[in-house]
Amino acid sequence: MEDIRFCPEHGFYRGETCKCGRKGELILDKERVEKLGRFISGILRHFPDKFGLEMDENGWVDFDELVRVVKRKYRWANRWLIKAIVYSDWKGRYELKDNRIRARYGHSVDVKLTDYPIAEEDVLYYGTGEEEAQRLLEIGIKPVNQAYVHLSTTIEKSEEVARLRTDEPIILEIDAKKAREDGIRIIKANEFIALAKEIPPKYIKGVIKL
Ligand SMILES: [Zn+2]
Q1: 115 CA distance to ligand 1 centroid (A)?
Q2: Three-class SS string for 89-140?
Q3: Does this model's pTM top 0.85?
Q4: pLDDT category, 7, cuts 50, 70, 90?
Q5: Phi and psi dihedrals of 81, rounded to 5?
Q6: Span 63-90, pLDDT tens digits
């Protein structure tokens, strides 16, 4: 986890120096980034009900309501600091629009995400380990503890995901074009992540060992 700083020209960023070389003002140290980020993503992905937040079918909650809930837990937090978390997040975890906020991916709550664009990639990737790969080739890719399967738009990203769990990543190549033609809904969460309810085994068209 990194500090969040503010550059007068480029806004919030994570790390020591901005892309322009300036060292901006410290907004949140890494401990607070961790705490606040974990809490916000927890609410938006897993437990909005626990804090009485109303979430619509596309995962949106009212931003004022979220700020209220967050402030109750962390007295030092405020609207501006929550925006700092959102706007500096290079993984594209959040979306803040029209005074509503949502997580872009990672939900365990049942969200429909009807307003997401359809993924246009012909091939998508899923990073995993050797043993798991064998199993997925038989049964297909299904979400575990999540509402959606998370696919990567590049081999590099799928490798990053796989390396969190294994030293010997296996990348499964998904024929997204064929799946789409057959009516499987694959949606785009952000530049690097596409989501599907399930990928049946017949759409796994290749296995890459790294
Ligand atoms: Zn800058």
Answers
A1: 33
A2: CCCCCEEEECCEEEECCCCCCCCCCCCCCECCCCEEEEEECHHHHHHHHHHC
A3: yes
A4: very high
A5: -70, -35
A6: 999 999 999 999 999 999 999 999 999 8
**Do 193 and 161 form a contact (C-beta atoms < 8 A)?**
no
Query: 91 falls in which pLDDT band (50, 70, 90)?
Result: confident
CA of 7 to the centre of ligand 1 (A): 5
Taking only the tens place, the pLDDT of each residue in 12-57 is: 999 999 999 999 999 999 999 999 999 999 999 999 999 999 999 9
Cα separation, 36 vs 21, in Å, equals 26
Give the DSSP H or E segment for 193: strand 193-196
Q: What is the mean pLDDT of the chain?
A: 96
How many A from CA of 12 to the centre of ligand 1?
A: 9
Residue type for position 10: H
Domain architecture of the chain: domains with CATH: 4-103 (1.10.10.970), 123-209 (3.20.170.30)
Q: Quote the ligand 1 centre to 117 CA distance (angstroms).
A: 31
CA of 97 to the centre of ligand 1 (A): 24
Å from CA of 10 to ligand 1 middle = 4
Q: Ligand 1 centroid to 101 CA: how many Å?
A: 25
CA of 24 to the centre of ligand 1 (A): 8
Cα Rg for the chain, rounded, in angstroms?
Answer: 19
